[in-house]
From TrEMBL:
Gene name for this UniProt entry: rex
Oligomeric form and interacting partners: Homodimer.
Record-annotated membrane-spanning stretches: none
Task performed by this protein: Modulates transcription in response to changes in cellular NADH/NAD(+) redox state.
Highest taxon listed in the record's lineage: Bacteria
Organism this protein belongs to: Novipirellula aureliae
PANTHER family the UniProt entry points to: REDOX-SENSING TRANSCRIPTIONAL REPRESSOR REX (PTHR35786), REDOX-SENSING TRANSCRIPTIONAL REPRESSOR REX 1 (PTHR35786:SF1)
Protein name: Redox-sensing transcriptional repressor Rex
Classification via NCBIfam families: PRK05472.1-3 (NF003989), PRK05472.2-3 (NF003994), PRK05472.2-4 (NF003995), PRK05472.2-5 (NF003996)
Primary localization class, coarse: cytoplasm
Keyword Repressor attached: yes
Region Disordered, residue ranges: 1-24
Length: 226
């Protein structure tokens, strides 16, 4: 039973979505993404409703935190029923921007870039990897996962007419700042940065850093403090 969930699930308008985005902390956005992934799986398995305790258990989050996250984005469950999976997917998707298509370019088609180009999970969430760029002649002119790899020297010429929304940086740290600045000047509005370096790009661009070594460090710390 959902004790504190009495209102009908309500879907917000654009303004409400903007407001909820502004209120969400970074960890909360991460959790929403996990709920979204789990809800997708549940929908595929034919589940129509779910309560906060069960969904929370699936992603290892307490029911109270999950309810708070979902209430921040303007949704609440129905007493005795829980959340409508389809509506929840729609609302979380809107807030996370998964309802729209995002064009993404990849810079650096080395080991990591190659794996990303082959990954099939992006398109399900609205991300389309359109093009990749590299400086290595052995990579230029090849196609990986259906995505053509072009010479990085052609980046400006190829992207300036219609800049992609987002870019993934999978290049060595020493090149990352210069390439990131180039992408920002072309109009790219978000960067997923795998290079282990802090980018200082101003407020016009959103940056998410993925540092797997730091994550391992966090894990090692967590193991030691268990
Ligand atoms: N491979 C991993 O598991 C992993 C994990 C965490 C972080 N990273 C980081 O991700 C980045 C890429 O790692 P990797 O293992 O794929 O390295 P890699 O050397 O295999 O690939 C880097 C690619 O970037 C290309 N490149 C270099 N300068 C460029 C430029 N100016 N424009 C476009 N392309 C350029 C290179 O030709 C190469 O193909 C590194 O910063 C690395 O530290 C990698």
């Amino acid at each position: 039973m959902e004790e504190s969930l009495s209102e009908e699930l309500s879907l917000g308008n654009d303004q409400a979505e903007d407001r909820s985005r502004a209120q969400l902390s970074r960890p909360a956005v991460g959790r929403l993404s996990l709920y979204f992934r789990e809800l997708h799986r549940l929908r595929e398995a034919g589940t129509e409703t779910i309560n906060s305790r069960t969904l929370g258990q699936l992603v290892n989050v307490s029911a109270a935190i999950l309810r708070r996250d979902l209430s921040t984005i303007g949704t609440s469950g129905r007493r005795g029923v829980g959340y409508d999976v389809e509506e929840l997917l729609e609302q979380i998707g809107k807030v996370l921007g998964s309802g729209q298509r995002w064009e993404v370019v990849l810079i650096g088609a080395g080991s990591l870039g190659d794996a990303l180009l082959r990954y099939r999970g992006f398109s399900r969430l609205g991300f389309t990897l359109t093009t990749a760029f590299d400086v290595n002649p052995a990579r230029i002119g090849t196609v990986v996962g259906g995505v053509p790899i072009h010479d990085a020297a052609e980046m400006q010429a190829r992207l300036s007419a219609q800049p992609p929304h987002l870019a993934i940086l999978a290049i060595p740290a020493a090149q990352a700042a210069e390439v990131a600045n180039q992408l920002v000047s072309l109009g790219v509005s978000g960067l997923l940065n795998f290079a282990p370096v802090t980018l200082k790009l101003g407020s016009k661009v959103a940056v998410v850093n993925v540092d797997l070594a730091s994550e391992l460090q966090r894990l090692a710390f967590a193991v030691q403090t268990q």
